[in-house]
Amino acid sequence: MKIIIVGAGKIGELLCKDLASEGNDITLIEQNAKILDRVLSSSDIMGIMGNGANCDILIEANVKACDVFIAVTQSDEINIISSVMAKKLGAKYSIARVRNPEYFTQMQFMSESLGIDAMLNPEAESAYCIARNLEFPTALNVETFSSNKVNIVELMVEENSYLDGLKLIDFKKNKNFKGILVCIVKRGKDIYIPTGNFVLQAKDKIYVTGIQSDLSNFYKSLGHVEERIKSVVIVGGGRITYYLTSILLERKIDVKIIELNEDRAKKLSETFENAIVVHGNGTDSDLLEEERFDKYDACVSLTGIDEENIIISMYANKKGIKKNITKINGISLFNVLELVGLQSIVTPKKIVADNIVKIVRSLASSQKEDNIETLYRIADNNVEAIEFKVPEDSLVSGIPLKDLNIKKNLLIAYIIRENQLIFPGGNDTIEAGDRVIIITTEKYLNNINKILK
User: Fold this and answer.
1) Does residue 360 share a domain with residue 301?
2) Interval 305-318: pLDDT, tens
3) What pLDDT shows up at residue 367?
4) Nearest to 123 by CA among 98, 144, 143
5) Is 226 part of a structural domain of the chain?
6) More confident position, 448 or 3
């Protein structure tokens, strides 16, 4: 596909690398010559220096032949204007990053009236991700499939727990684990899509799939009491906090916000009458003690400084807060976080970049009538979890799974047929119209037929 990206910030750079590696023809438009040269030196793409909202620049980029136009500059207005212009000049599909909360409530109207196909808000997407994670207190991270019917949950195997030393063939025999599938194991730097003979070890990160009721039974059988999170303390009062607080208050969860900037704290207090807003420094342990920090069920660290968020989350861990979520902008810090025991991480730029990749992959597959419904990249982007809609002419239709010559390092996790969830065995078949959830270490799988050797 021919793709034009406007803006070479963190999101633009991530998109250039990801989409170029999938064989797409990428043109990057960026006003800053040094930034443009840096991105071009590390990616096999074309570059044009200029303003993406300039008609002449868009014509030079051959926007009329563009399949997908993506505007991810720091300016909402440039993103909106350039996306509108791109569509007028012939781009087939346009995506704009829009961050301003004032625009957020008007997104549907703006999208429909201006002709922009998708408008994405990194902070709002991050808030949804955090809120989903808070629904599973024991989980490190959570993703959902099939209109939230199926969850894929990341957990840590605790030392001397029931799972420590358990062979997966015995896992499947446990009646309390009905409907639960261990689809990925991350052991150190190694990634496994495990077979029945695989033995779990302490400190393994495992990714399990299941519906919410089955996951609750699974947690209980492991001795975890999955009490609903009823109170959350948020440190930092930026845009993510604005969106997250709205979601949590709607769920009747008690919210306390600690914000250093007095004007911002005042505005939050006026906006959210049912939340407690404290003006103060969230890294001040005396203030945290005074605010009974350790009495909250969850802590979400959302300041604008990565190092502060890490310190706050480490302190929350020490104080025994059972659920801690940390916002990190620098992807290079991920390895450090594991060393200090922080597991539930949110990176807004990565979230929106992954969502854009999902849209592009879905558009590419829809041209071949082989629709990708949902795509998640998990286990440090080493594994893809993909939900396909099976077309009429699929090579895998009507054949028992045990008779399919399926590639290694690939797992058929679920089949969804007419809203019925099927936990597949060897005698089950995939049929046209089904939705199938595939877990694989193979990169860029964009066709259900490619699960075959």
Assistant:
1) no
2) 999 999 999 999 99
3) 62
4) 98
5) no
6) 3
